[in-house]
Amino acid sequence: MTKPAKLAALRIARSLSLFRAVSNSRWRRERLAILCYHGVSIEDEHEWDPRFYVSPAILEQRFHVLLESGYHVLPLGEGVRRLREGSLPPRSVALTFDDGCYDFYRQAFPLLEKYKLPATVYLTTFYCFHRKPVFDMFCHYLMWKGRHSFAGGRLSGVDHTPELSSERGRRRASESVIRSAETQAMSLAARDALAEELARQLGLDYQEVVSKRILQLMTVDEVKRISEAGIDIQLHTHRHRTPKDRGLFCREIEDNRRAICEMTGASGRETVHFCYPDGVYDREFLPWLEQQGIVSATTCESGLASRQDHPLLLPRIVDTSGQTPVEFESWISGVSALAPRVSNGRRRA
Ligand SMILES: [Zn+2]
Question: For the whole model, what pTM was predicted?
Fold first, then answer.
């Protein structure tokens, strides 16, 4: 189905009160909608990558929908526990934010406070101690940011003539820089210097971009402050990776947990919810997570979490800038989660 046809069908479904009927159904009551956000733009990040960023205006509009339509926004831990017990309230939702970049502190946190909504931040901790942008993501952002100001010529770390007018060309150039830094096993300082040089070659003011703290993690003090204000801080690995080696995988969780506990004063028993970096998971990880005392883990696969899901493979609803209000409502009501089941059923039939 094309996007306009899908949107038209959803609008008709909503006008026929189908959204309300599904959201009030017993089927929906047995499910938890875990919403997933990555970044909330400080400046123009949602224009750069609408799949990973929403503007603060969109986030606030989503909160309005949740509150006006009577959704129960629960803390993640309570939601997961009550899902297991079968005691969820109607239309239950949990809010999660991945990574813990400064934009959460600056943009999402004030809105959560304003509407008194509970939320979980899955925090990756390595860059919390380093006040520079996350190198890989920053390379992608710089190529986009400098697409008009770049006067042509060579770019440091790029092994070909860069072509920045297309998304494909920009990605090829940034991946070449990232590969070059990895091949040379560059230190953090060398990566920062390379990013600075790239910004200059692209015709950008590096200090100005860095001063906005785009793609930088929250500092230790900021994490402490949001934790004291009631934001739940949970696990996302220390270095944002899931090595397929048991020892290295467990070390990622242990380092991440230790850093979170130091920053927030939480105990290890309180940091028991995990989110797979980049949504990448493997069944091999499940016993390792259990051994680490993890009680829930979320993926980036679309769906409402139910008791039939493995607690370490809970789906979420990844909200993006490209999602219209009616699509958002179709997800939280349960209509979109039901739709594929109908078509699968038909196929089987
Ligand atoms: Zn992440």
Answer: 0.92
